[in-house]
Every structure is written in structure tokens, then in C-alpha cells.
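Please go through the sequence line and C-alpha cell line underneath and see whether the fold suits the sequence. See right below:
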Amino acid sequence: MNILDKIIEHKYIEVEARKQSHPVKVLEKGLYFSSAPISMTKNIQREDKSGIIMEFKRKSPSKGVINAISSVEQTTTGYVQAGASALSVLTDYQFFGGTNDDLLEARKFNFCPIIRKDFTINEYQIIEAKSIGADAILLIAAVLDPKVSKQFTSLAHSLGLEVLLEVHDEEELQKNLEVGADMIGVNNRNLKTFEVSIEISKQLAPLIPDGVVKVSESGISNPETIVELTKYGYEGFLMGENFMKNTRPEVTAQEFVDKLTKLK
């Protein structure tokens, strides 16, 4: 069993427990459930923003603890000030050290699109995402049947949420072209081996339909890579570890954006 399988196995147990402790009727009474989400796609395409989706992530299965000390408030507000087009907040606790409270905290202090970064395997999680203030959700092609992804996307859209569909190879991409996702993210990190290569983003770029925002995820560590990927039609760039491995992620993010601006 690879790490992805372990995560999904645990997620089914976790979601069933949350259904009991926080029923849908309770979620629908949440502070943010009736509020209008902010468009992540439009923000990514704004010329006055960096295109970077800056992530708050405490740890990962491949790297262990990345940053256990930075606060959600200071980091996310700093990200936004640095020019983040959107925020990504991990809410998986078992493997990434995140919680729903992290997203709620980010929402409280930022008027900026926030994507809930988790492993969505049940419609309940989409309703939950809306209730905690998310503007978009992540769907991972590697763990969902395309028909299920399409159903999840329809539900998300009915709630005003946008969808980032993550793929890892051409087969996953081709199978999910009819899902209706607003964004397609190419994960440069193989979730089974955790090896990273930017080349996969380059290879899949021409296969992503026009009208869908292209996002390159993982393994981006320098501004030159973003400039290069822009030539392939990418508008969004998900970055977390490169910032979070520093004690002041928001400062590192600002320095990165400053260098990127000079290159454009």
C-alpha cells in the first residue's frame, strides 16, 4: 500500500466520524455557508497578482515536519500582502498537520480566494468546505472515478465553489476532460513515488482545453521556472514547501515575488 492509499483509507474513517459529530444540518448553519465565494480563477488571471497560490502546510508524508511554528494569521496575511493570487490551506491532520480551524483562521483575516487542500472522497466534505469559508476545492483524479469527480464538481458549483482538478499524467487528464473543472492542476510530484519533475507540466500543457485555467503544482523553487511555465500557458502556480520551510514564510514569499516581478 503506497502513501496515497494509506491517506485515502484513513480519510474514509475520518469523514464518517465527522458526519456523526458535525451533521450536514449543522454545517449549513455555519458562519460562511451563506456567504458568496471569491472567484479563484479570476484572481489567478489578474495582472496585478503573481499567479502564485501560496500554501500553508505544516508537514507532509514525504518531508515530515516542514514548519511547526508559523501562525496561520501572520503567514497568510503576509502571503496576500506579497501578492498571492490565492491561498491554499491544508485541512488534513493525520498526514499534513492541518485542521479546519486553519482555514477558518485564514478566512477570518483575508479577503482572498482560499482553496481547501484535502483529499475529497465524499460529498460531505464539499459542504464542509463551504461551511468553513473555502472558495474552491481540490479533486484528485488519482483517487476518484471521473463520474464521481463530475458529480462532485456539480455539487461544488451549486454551492458557488470552484474546482481545481489535479492530474499526474496524460491518462488521468484524458479521462477527466468532461468533469467540468474550472482549473486543471498538473502535479509535478508523483503521489506514489514523490519524485518531482517540472517536465510533466510541460508535456500536459497542450492537452488541457482552452477556457480551463492551467495550474502547475509542486516542485517550483525559483522564479525562472514560473516564467518558463507561463510560456506553456500556465497562469497559476501552487507553492507551499518552498516558503514554509523558512521560519518566516511570508518574508520568503515576498522576496520570491520581487524577483519574479523583475523577470517579467
Notes: Strands lie at 52-56, 59-60, 64-65, 86-90, 114-117, 136-140, 162-167, 183-187, 213-217, 236-239. Residues 188 and 200 are 6 Å apart (CA to CA). The longest helix spans residues 3-21. Residues 3-263 form a domain with the TIM Barrel fold (CATH 3.20.20.70).
